[in-house]
Amino acid sequence: MPKSISDLRRKRRQSSKSPKTRRQIESEWYQSKEWRTVREESRREQRQKDEDRIISVFEELENATSSDLYEFLTHKKQYPLCNHCLEEGFITVGNVCDHIIPIKRGGAKLDKSNLQWLCHDCHAIKSGKEAH
Ligand SMILES: [Zn+2]
């Protein structure tokens, strides 16, 4: 007995479940326990380093204001400094953990030496450049 059109449609719908996109796979990875653990370790280590050197950094930077320092010291989530802002002479809380060499260019995913902390603005600029 031939299948009805609706049977065929149903079957097609079930089998056409699309494979995951790269974006989906990436975003699932960023939820993984390994990544979250390494990220958290990196945050703590970098924060401690930045706290230890913040006064000397602050004295060296011409553009830094005491409100920048205050923001860093009182930031509830205890993030490190934004690495790129620091290079430009600004003190900004860096709350995005970035892969220095992007994963898609072969950068190590879970190696803390490939991680840096950036503010949202610097991260958006860096990701924008990488996309080109
Ligand atoms: Zn920044």
Notes on the structure:
With 132 residues, this protein is mainly alpha-helical. It has a domain at 43-132. The chain is built from six helices and two strands, in the order H-H-H-H-H-E-E-H. The chain has helices spanning 5-15, 22-29, 33-60, 66-74, 83-88, 120-130, and strands at residues 96-99, 115-118. A two-stranded antiparallel ribbon has the order 1-2. The model has no long low-confidence stretch (mean pLDDT 88). It binds zinc ion. The site of zinc ion (ZN) has 8 residues, from helix 5 and helix 6. Zinc ion (ZN) binds next to helix 5 and helix 6.
Q: How far from one another are the termini?
A: 55 Å
In order across it, which strands form the biggest sheet?
1-2
> Helix segment count?
6
How many strands in all?
2
Strand content: 5-15%
Report the biggest beta sheet as strand number plus sense, adding barrel if it closes. 2 strands, antiparallel
User: Which ligands does the model contain, each kind named once?
Assistant: zinc ion
What class would the helix/strand composition place it in?
Answer: mainly alpha
Describe the global form. Answer: elongated
Which runs of at least 5 residues are low in confidence (pLDDT < 50)?
none
Order of SSEs = HHHHHEEH
Helical content class = 55-70%
Mean pLDDT: 88
